[in-house]
UniProtKB/TrEMBL annotation:
Residues 173-192 are annotated as: Disordered. One of its GO terms (molecular function) is metallopeptidase activity. InterPro entries: Metalloprtase-TldD/E_C, TldD/PmbA_N, TldD/PmbA_sf. PANTHER family: CONSERVED PROTEIN, TLDD PROTEIN. This is Peptidase. Residues 227-457 form the Metalloprotease TldD/E C-terminal domain. It comes from Streptomyces flaveus. GO terms for biological process: proteolysis.
Length: 463
């Protein structure tokens, strides 16, 4: 390959040719991003970026086992390949046997588009969205509110090649929109966010109207003390809590007695966690939330292993009709625990609620709180998965089926596992953008949940 040849699939092939290790995995991630930012009802910046990251994983067999070395570099060209491959091999030879060592994956059919050029995004993804956003700025000015926020669209084409013959590719579009509306004196704030693949299903006018309503609710202020309140958690808040629960669902950690999913002598698989018939699942082929159908592991850790690269992913139910069904496991941790192989997947869906909108759930509330979103979520106790965090951008008082005002923000202390067990109602499942984890996990669909006794542990002074 000449120094001028820089196609991603050729870079993968050349890196594999250069390898002197016993095994080799190469991942080329070609990415492009387009973004818009605005403040005070005016566009401030926009831009497009492109780049490449190449990850080389070398495996070396020894008398005591197989070791691995992983090296990643950005902006890699043909001239950078051999030093990168040699660095990965040196890292492998300098490491001890890898605990998660497994034979590299074989027998997966080549992706038909493996040799095609990467898919890229551009500012054209905002062709319809940007003019509609401008119209929203005008309406906001007339209504006495200011809009702030950003829209980001990313396209990542991942090329995976291995010394065992795998040649796989996945194209992942990912778009996010976050919109804040503020009163001119900045005492009132409301937030809305959306996840999208192409910005064709995002309506700035509808979001602006939603935020205008929330700012009107906030014109009346009610101070409430800390305590337990009947609370309606919107889909974005439910997503943030259950994503953290998924991240804490390690089969190995549970089997070793370190998590909320542990029990003496094993795990809680088969145990009922929720009275409602809720199913928490992931599916690479979920319409509108499609994600990689095979394992793409750039490093090993927890229940993810570089040796599993290319492993086909299947639809997985983590909780089935309220019962714990699977915990996240690699081939290695599955061997340790005796549980099925169940790698993490890049989306999360909660089903099983009623076909009710959040507005209908509000109308059925005698007295309670309606949240907008959660923020600054941190773990307090892994044994119970107790989390703490803050409410943000609007907590509203519901009385006799109507929102009657805004209340102060709170710090909360809750476990998502306990919340699933105490939830008395779940609404309609809909696509949502997690507020806290939106930089890392965006493909989620959740219902609103009614919690009869959500623990607002202290009052927060945040807006």
């Amino acid at each position: 390959m000449s120094a001028r040849t820089n196609k991603p699939h050729e870079v993968v092939e050349r890196a594999l040719e250069l390898s002197r290790a016993d095994g080799c995995v190469v991942i080329a991630d070609e990415y492009s991003t387009a973004n818009l930012r605005w403040a005070g009802n005016a566009l401030t910046t926009n831009g497009v970026t492109r780049g490449r990251t190449l990850t080389v994983i070398a495996t070396v067999d020894g008398k005591k086992g197989t070791s691995s070395g992983v090296v990643s570099r950005s902006a890699v060209t043909a001239d950078d390949l051999e030093p990168l491959v040699r660095s990965a091999e040196a890292a492998a030879r300098g490491a001890g046997p890898a605990e998660d060592a497994q034979p590299l994956v074989t027998g997966v059919a080549q992706s038909p588009e493996f040799t095609d050029a990467p898919t890229e995004t551009s500012s054209g993804v905002f062709a319809d969205f940007a003019p509609a956003l401008g119209e929203s700025f005008a309406r906001a000015r007339e209504g006495g509110r200011e809009l702030y926020g950003f829209a980001n669209h990313e396209f990542v084409s991942s090329y995976l090649g291995t010394s065992t013959g795998l040649r796989l590719r996945h194209d992942q579009p990912n778009g996010t929109l976050e919109l804040n509306a503020k009163s001119p004196d900045r005492t009132r704030s409301a937030w809305a966010g959306r996840s999208t693949r192409d910005f064709k299903d995002v309506d700035p006018a509808a979001l602006d109207a939603e935020l205008a309503t929330r700012l009107r609710w906030a014109e009346r202020r009610v101070e409430l003390p800390a305590g337990r309140y009947e609370t309606l958690l919107p889909p974005t808040a439910v997503a943030d809590l259950l994503i953290y629960q998924l991240w804490s669902s390690s089969a190995r950690d549970a089997a070793e007695g370190r998590t909320v999913f542990s029990k003496p002598g094993g795990t809680r698989i088969g145990e009922k966690l929720a009275e409602l018939p809720l199913t928490l699942r992931s599916d690479p082929n979920e319409p509108g939330l499609e994600c990689a159908p095979f394992e793409l592991a750039h490093s090993s850790g927890g229940d993810s292993s570089v040796f599993d690269n290319g492993l086909p992913l299947q639809a997985t139910e983590w909780i089935r009709a309220g019962e714990l069904a699977h915990l996240v496991s690699s081939r290695h941790s599955a061997g340790l625990t005796g549980l099925p192989v169940a790698p993490a997947i890049g989306n999360l869906i909660l089903d099983g609620g009623q076909d009710k909108s959040l507005e209908e759930m509000v109308a059925a509330t005698e007295r309670g709180l309606l949240l907008t979103c959660l923020w600054y979520i941190r773990e307090v106790d892994p044994a119970t998965l107790l989390l703490t965090g803050l409410t943000r951008d609007g907590v509203y008082l519901v009385e006799n089926g109507e929102v009657t005002g805004e209340v102060n923000n709170f710090r909360f202390n809750e476990s998502p596992v306990d919340l699933l067990g105490r939830a008395t109602e779940a609404g309609r499942t809909e696509k949502t953008l997690p507020r806290e984890w939106g930089d890392w996990f965006t493909r989620a669909a959740m219902p609103a949940l009614r919690i009869p006794d959500f623990n607002m542990s202290s009052v927060s002074q945040g807006v």
